[in-house]
């Protein structure tokens, strides 16, 4: 099992969600997040005072998939979330040791 | 016989007629006089109803400027941990100043006394009834005048709260502004508008200052006192290193637009009747505000590349402030000019001068009200037109020129004297009162409380509780 954490532009949420569903990924968790990578934020002016806003609003999608689904899921996110401009986000992948369904204690990939 | 009888009866009837005429004439004269008197009283009643209805609406409009207008405008500009405390400062003025005004404030401002402050004849509203006082306004009950002036007395100290936002104790704020209302506002209002006032243009003051709706009385006093407060209290923790951006320009926008609407009561109401002068003040208010908003936002557009919402509404308030003393004295095209100058001048004061000197006038009460009030008072002396308001008369009753554009250069001196007195009484009065309150109960919250926010530490509440 693999965990995909994808940090994306908020405006791309619907497209990415749909792409994951189309790829056969049924479960996901969405978090509203703030952060920056190389994009480094923007400046705002209030009555002549300048503020650098470097933590920008982002959406973080977390989903755990069986090993064989990983490539398909990553491709779906890449295709849906990419604009080609700085600030498109990142995808992080890590191994998951166990998944447990709370309702009936089911374990392993079928519990995802 | 017949002709004679006819003659006799003719004579008889003539005699009757002549005898009856004086009595008839008398009866008809007294009925006519009665009718005229009755009509005059009906006309007076109708005029009083018309003027009084406008003045009561104006009073409500001016209260609307403080709550919710100013409360929203200011609270949107602070950080979200101080939103309620900032609203509460304006709201507290609506309640506290009302009590002070009824007890002594009105009397100190508007009863006859010395040239500098009124007496106590009208303390507890003694003698302030429902009949008009022609010295102030011949066609509205003096109680309407009293309550209208109360709304001005409320918003003036509330304006100062912008300077010490986010760091003053609620208790200190309440005591400071109560004393300020008695010892700074009432004397200044008396000098400009009260019977026998030193600067009263309508009642033969020594230096007749033209101040239609409170450029000196309201905006210079509040704005200059705000600067003194900002300097005396010092900066907010972390200012200017830590960012203190407005937490909700949406609130500020709504507040500023309510200020604009309420200001029609402030300026057009200052005609004290519903006649043509009110129209003039109304139009000038609209015109100056428009050019001031354009000037501020336009200057930003040129300097920064974008016209901001905050710039637009700040400019509008600057225009409203600057046209306040001029509203009932100038032509509409002059109002355009006054607004544009005020918008640019206040933009410069807020964005440049403040950072040069480094004081933390948190919400720019001085930069907008002090600076805008001063420039407005001076421009009033330049643009005042006797065709709008023939305020100065010669001994024979002929209209004399009002402002510099009519050749009356002397009026500039009068305006400067009014401005200087307003600055002087504000600096001295505010310093003394701040010192007294500082030594007794202390002005600032503790650094821990300032960090945590005034909503929790002063009022035990939160403005935004999204968890519940």
What does this structure look like?
Chain A is 20% helix and 37% strand. Chain A has 112 residues and is α+β, with helices and mostly antiparallel strands. Chain A has one domain (2-111): 2-Layer Sandwich (Alpha-Beta Plaits), CATH 3.30.70.120. In chain A, strands 2-5-1-6 form a four-stranded antiparallel beta sheet, with helices on one face. A two-stranded antiparallel sheet of chain A has the order 3-4. In chain A, β3 and β4 (49-53) form a beta hairpin. Chain A is elongated and about 60 Å long. The model of chain A has no long low-confidence stretch (mean pLDDT 91). Chain B has a single domain (48-118, 137-459), classed as Ammonium transporter AmtB like domains (Ammonium transporter fold, Orthogonal Bundle). Chain B has helices at residues 2-77, 83-110, 142-160, 170-193, 215-233, 249-267, 276-304, 309-323, 332-357, 365-383, 410-440, 447-452, 454-459. Chain B is globular, with a radius of gyration of 28 Å. The model of chain B has no long low-confidence stretch (mean pLDDT 93). The chains are: A alpha+beta (112), B mainly alpha (468). The A-B interface holds A 44-49, 51 and B 240, 243, 245-246, 300, 304, 306, 308, 310-311, 314, 350-352, 355, 364.
Task: Describe the structure concisely for a colleague.
With 112 residues, chain A is α+β, with helices and mostly antiparallel strands. Chain A contains two helices and six strands.
Query: What is the domain tally of chain B?
Result: 1
Distance between the termini of chain B: 116 Å
Strand order of the largest sheet of chain A: 2-5-1-6
CATH topology category name of chain B: Ammonium transporter fold
């Amino acid at each position: 099992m693999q965990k995909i954490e994808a940090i994306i532009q908020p405006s791309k949420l619907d497209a990415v969600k749909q792409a994951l569903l189309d790829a056969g990924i049924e479960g996901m968790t969405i978090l509203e997040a703030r952060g920056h990578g190389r994009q480094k934020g923007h400046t705002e002016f209030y009555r002549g005072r300048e503020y650098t806003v470097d933590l920008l609003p982002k959406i973080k999608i977390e989903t755990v998939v069986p090993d064989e689904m990983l490539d398909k899921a990553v491709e779906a996110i890449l295709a849906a979330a990419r604009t080609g401009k700085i600030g498109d986000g990142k995808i992080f992948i890590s191994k998951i040791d166990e998944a447990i369904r709370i309702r009936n204690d089911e374990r392993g990939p079928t519990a995802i | 016989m017949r002709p004679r009888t006819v003659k006799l009866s003719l004579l008889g009837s003539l005699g009757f007629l002549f005898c009856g005429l004086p009595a008839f004439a008398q009866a008809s004269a007294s009925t006519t006089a009665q009718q005229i008197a009755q009509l005059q009283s009906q006309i007076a009643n109708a005029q009083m109803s018309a003027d009084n209805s406008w003045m009561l609406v104006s009073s409500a409009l001016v209260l609307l400027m403080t709550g919710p207008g100013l409360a929203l405008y200011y609270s949107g500009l602070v950080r979200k941990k101080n939103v309620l405390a900032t609203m509460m400062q304006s709201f507290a003025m609506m309640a506290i100043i009302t009590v002070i005004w009824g007890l002594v404030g009105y009397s100190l401002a508007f009863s006859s006394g010395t040239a500098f402050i009124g007496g106590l004849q009208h303390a507890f509203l003694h003698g302030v009834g429902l009949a008009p006082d022609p010295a102030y306004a011949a066609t509205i009950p003096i109680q309407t005048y009293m309550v209208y002036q109360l709304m001005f007395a409320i918003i003036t100290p509330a304006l100062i709260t912008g300077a010490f936002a986010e760091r003053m104790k609620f208790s200190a704020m309440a005591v400071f502004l109560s004393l300020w209302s008695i010892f700074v506002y009432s004397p200044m209002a008396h000098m400009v508008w009260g019977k026998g006032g030193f600067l009263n243009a309508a009642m033969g003051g020594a230096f007749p200052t033209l101040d239609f709706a409170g450029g000196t009385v309201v905006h210079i006093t509040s704005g200059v006192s705000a600067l003194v407060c900002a300097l005396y209290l010092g900066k907010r923790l972390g200012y200017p290193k830590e960012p203190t951006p407005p937490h909700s320009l949406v609130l500020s926008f709504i507040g500023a637009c309510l200020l604009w609407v309420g200001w029609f009561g402030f300026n057009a109401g200052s005609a004290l009747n519903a006649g043509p002068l009110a129209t003039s003040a109304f139009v000038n208010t609209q015109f100056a505000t428009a050019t001031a908003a354009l000037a501020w936002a336009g200057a930003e557009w040129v300097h920064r590349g974008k016209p901001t919402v905050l710039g637009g509404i700040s400019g509008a308030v600057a225009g409203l402030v600057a046209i306040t003393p001029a509203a009932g004295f100038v032509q509409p095209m002059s109002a355009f000019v006054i607004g544009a100058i005020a918008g640019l001048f206040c933009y410069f004061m807020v964005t440049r001068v403040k950072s040069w000197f480094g004081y933390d006038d948190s919400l720019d009460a001085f930069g907008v009200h002090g600076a805008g009030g001063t420039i407005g008072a001076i421009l009033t002396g330049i643009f005042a037109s006797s065709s709008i308001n023939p305020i100065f008369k010669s001994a024979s009753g002929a209209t004399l020129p009002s402002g510099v554009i009519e050749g009356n250069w002397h009026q500039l001196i009068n305006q400067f004297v009014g401005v200087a007195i307003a600055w002087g009484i504000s600096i001295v009065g505010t310093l003394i009162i701040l010192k007294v309150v500082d030594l007794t109960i202390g002005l600032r919250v503790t650094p821990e409380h300032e960090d945590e926010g005034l909503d929790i530490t002063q009022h035990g509440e939160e403005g935004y509780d999204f968890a519940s």
